[in-house]
TrEMBL record, chain B:
Organism: Paenibacillus amylolyticus
Taxonomic classification: Bacteria, Bacillati, Bacillota, Bacilli, Bacillales
One Gene Ontology term of the molecular function aspect: transmembrane transporter activity
PANTHER family: GUANOSINE ABC TRANSPORTER PERMEASE PROTEIN NUPQ, SUGAR ABC TRANSPORTER INTEGRAL MEMBRANE PROTEIN-RELATED
GO cellular component, one term: plasma membrane
Protein localization: Cell membrane
Protein name: ABC transporter
Keywords of this entry: Cell membrane, Membrane, Transmembrane, Transmembrane helix
Listed CDD domains: TM_PBP1_transp_TpRbsC_like (cd06580)
InterPro entries registered for this protein in UniProt: ABC_transp_permease
Amino acid sequence: MNNVLKWFTRDSFILPVVAIIMGLILGGVVMLIGGYNPVEAYGALFTKVFGDMYNFGEAVREMTPLIMTGLAFAFASRAGLFNIGGEGQFLVGMTAATFVGVKFAGLPIYLHAPLALIAGALFGGLWAAIAGYLKAARGVNEVISSIMLNWIGLYLANLIVRQFLLLKGENRSVDISESASISLTWLSELMGNSRVHMGTLIALVMAVLFYIYMWKTKQGYEIRAVGYNPNAAEYAGMHVNRNIVKAMFISGMLAGLGGAFQVLGVFHYQTVMSGSPGTGFDGIAVALIGLNHPFGVLLGAVLFGTLTYGSAGMSFAADVPPEIIRIVIGSIIFFIAAQGIVRWILKPFYSKRKKEKVL
Amino acid sequence: MDLLTIGQIINTTLVFATALIFASLGGIFSEKSGVTNLGLEGFMVFGAFAAGIGAHYAQEAGMGGTTSAWMGVLLAIVLGVLVSLIHAVASITFKADQIISGIVINFLAAGSTLYLVKLLFEGSGDSPLVQGFSKFDVPFLKDIPLLGEAFFKNVYPTTYLAILFVFLTYYIMFKTPFGLRLRSVGEHPSAADTVGVKVLRYRYIGVMISGALAAIGGAAITLTTTGTFSHNTVSGQGYIAIAAMIFGKWNPIGAFGAAVFFGFSQAIRNYVQLFEWSQSIPQEIIFMLPYLLTIIVLVAAVGRSSAPSALGEAYDPGKR
């Protein structure tokens, strides 16, 4: 019991919670300024998500890729890398999964779907590993190389869909074969025919694996050591460069898997895109809200998914522009990043607690 | 392909490059002072938005097309400076992670501008169409073959302004005491502090100039190419501006070259069907070429980073 209490009073718990509350309040103030009723708007937001089974299932579907791109960003961050390329890795993973899903028709379902998932993860990982390799071997800043790789990934995805997978007369690929689908029909029927899929379960498993790998294995220790202080890690005999490439590869695998989920579980085909979907960038926000911890990422994705999916209901029921939610999310990250501000606001409470502790 | 087409491609290249030039110059001011600026995209969005509504209301108030366009630019500068203070307060005063603070700007920009547009224009996702800057011809010079077509015909004032700012930035950065101090703050803040340079103040100024310039870049898009502000007016140009800055090694002239290079890659799309040889190449390959080339150049030529030494580090006088 005491442990639980201690956990709740920890900074890593209090600061995000206060940041979230402050973000919601700030959003409410902006709504008031715009002449809307924030209570009504937030009410409509939560009714949208939790009001009926269909919308709840769709909200869960919305959260799933965010978990993956969030985990991807968090993983690289632990190694001291800023993987802004989740977007490209997501797209490349998506395309690899579509390719396998379409071209390898005829495989039994217990082979086809896993193969498509593995392809998505593998190519997403390789895409990120390019940025990792360039950083390790040539000192190229991973931020810029992965921004470039995002664009290349977008056009590469379109190229592959248009050249090899195109449905005649349409701007999209042919459907993946049934055997590659990871949709869960029974769960979907249970949840008002929403497009829930197995990916959500895999995402949860990935968060647990992330935790175990990062904090319970020697390899995870090395990655964290490189992230804390590459020089010290090098001095201790670790291969910094190898760890950079490895961390980027695993990070990209997570993002790529997220892309694969979207094709295999939700849409069952891939469109030729005029711009990138933004899931990779949203994953950065999710990871930041979750303080780069896998379980924090889960909570971050729930928060992000609830807010964005629910914002549609907000605009429908209370006529509030849904864009307000971006302001809320932006301010939440702002307050989490600038912890100084939150501490400054919480100062009265902190000093009181300190006094008690001293005695 | 004839000279006329080449001239037109150069012309279009410069139009597309204009916004990138402004934004990457903005990035240089911030990063030379030691503050990473991933918020360029957001500043551009704010600028594009301010230009859209500023020009609209100026037009409503009865100002002429060009005057109202300048009013739009002015509002963009004001808003750019204001929102840059968010980045500055978080990353300089409160020592937040500068990359994250920049991303926050992008989030806030995407949300608040669309929110305001819908609020101001009864739920519409676009700002009303404004006249913006009109193209003009430079007398006499426009008749020079090729060069006239490329640089002096159908040009926007913003393009000339951007090129002027390249040299101005170069001059300020490398020939004035202000530039020297700004750079010293980004290279070695504690040494600068020791000789009496106000580190935090210079960083604030760097970020504010950055916000203003990037916002002008965004304004240039609204007031020349689109004529209206919507959610996809800027769409990633801020990130390309960051690439241009790094590609140009944080040097204004280099960033200008890189911006023109990216502008060319955007312009070429409009002309791609004109080339015989390009018919057989899928358009996606041509689209991805500039980004591919950037990576190749980074690997081959840059290698050694030329970023300011103290970039991304909050300044803590206690650590001196």
